[in-house]
Amino acid sequence: MASFSTKPSKLYNVRSISMPVRSHPSTLRTEEELNKLKALEAALTSSSSPASSKADSICKALGGLKELYFCIEELLQLPLTQQALALHQKEKWVEELLDGSVTYLDVCGNTRDSILTMKESVRDLQSTLRRRKVGDSSIEDNVSSYVRIRKKMKKEIVQFMASLKQMDQKYEAFPLDIDNHLAAVVRVLREASLITSSIFHFLSSFLSTPILKPRPSRWSLVSILLHKGVLVSDNNQHKSMNELENVDIAISNMLVNNSGEGFEDDQKTQSAQRRLEVLDSSIEGIENGLECLFRLLIRTRVSLLNMLSC
After folding, report:
1. CA 91 and chain centroid, separation
2. Torsion 103-150-120-249 (CA) sign
3. N or C: which end of the chain has fewer CB within 10 A?
4. pTM of the entire structure?
5. Phi, psi at 172, each rounded to 5°
6. What PANTHER family would the database entry show (predicted)?
7. What is each CA distance from 258 to 32, 139, 233, in whole angstroms?
8. DSSP characters over 268-299
9. Please, are residues 12 and 194 in contact by the beta-carbon 8 Å criterion?
10. Secondary structure (3-state) at 46
11. How far does CA 5 lie from the centroid of its chain?
């Protein structure tokens, strides 16, 4: 299975774009949003950035994408942009623009759906912990379900990102020998595509936090974590662990400490609940960001289709 590095590939390094001297104000506003996103991207890649804040940084980046696509929508509504693109509607790079809009829609929508499934699993587990009873096996069942969903989502993310990589490679062939305004628009759209892919890359890294393969034993996740020596007290969890890792460890600590006591260790259970609440909040923020972005991507595609069908 493919894995994702926390560092972006060379393809994802988004540059500060240089526009013509007399760029339209809409183009300049789009450039400003792109440069803001570049700063957010730097925060995501920074080795000094604590893992525990990655979800928050991703939410901010998705918010930045929302502002970027608002500006792109405004740019595409300009008569000058529509006329210029209509003159080139039969060219291959224009078709690739349309193909790209479909790819980003698919990746955004599918990622949002995967996260929604994960959120439901997290909330089911929270609910089970709140109404726990001595000897209640439903906790083990919900933990197993949560792990299965995480593993399934990781496989899906690999597929989503492979389609983005193929799309990004096509953008390298965008033309530059066109009139100034259209050249600026094309550069904006290309840079927007690259930084969108970059942010999805970091989102995929977060969602693909490694899941250890379960073994056929009652406490499969726990036994593996014990074998790896990663079970620690809640007080020892530190900034190098993201929200998903903290939940894994808190749940495992709870099961280990309660496996012989009928889940009576309230301190460990409360710790798991706190970690799940933090993860739930992070997931909901990402889901909301993806939902808003998905709607804007639809509008961008509709705008492109309308101007190219004239």
Report:
1. 32
2. negative
3. N
4. 0.79
5. -65, -20
6. DUF241 DOMAIN PROTEIN (PTHR33070:SF116), OS06G0725500 PROTEIN (PTHR33070)
7. 54, 11, 14
8. HHHHHHHHHHHHHHHHHHHHHHHHHHHHHHHH
9. yes
10. coil
11. 14
Q: Does residue 213 sit in helix, strand or coil? A: coil
Decide: helix, strand or coil at residue 137: coil
DSSP class per residue in 230-254 = ----GGG--TTS-HHHHHHHHHHHH
Closest CA to 279 of 220, 213, 207, 230: 207
Provide the residue type at 196 as one letter.
T
The residue assigned the tokens 């904006």 is 188
Answer for the pair 234, 209: CB distance below 8 angstroms, yes or no. no
Distance in angstroms (rounded) separating the CA atoms of residues 85 and 91: 10
Each residue's pLDDT tens digit in the chain (310 positions)? Answer: 334 343 444 333 444 444 443 467 888 899 899 999 988 888 777 756 665 577 888 999 999 999 999 999 999 999 988 888 888 888 877 888 888 889 899 999 999 999 999 999 999 999 988 877 645 667 788 888 898 999 899 888 888 888 887 776 665 555 555 667 888 888 888 888 889 988 998 898 888 888 644 333 444 554 544 444 444 444 444 456 888 988 888 888 777 755 445 444 678 888 889 999 999 999 999 999 999 999 999 999 998 888 877 6
133: its two tokens: 């009873």
Residue 114's H or E segment, with its range, is helix 92-130
Count the neighbouring beta carbons within 10 Å of the beta carbon of residue 297. 24
DSSP 177: -
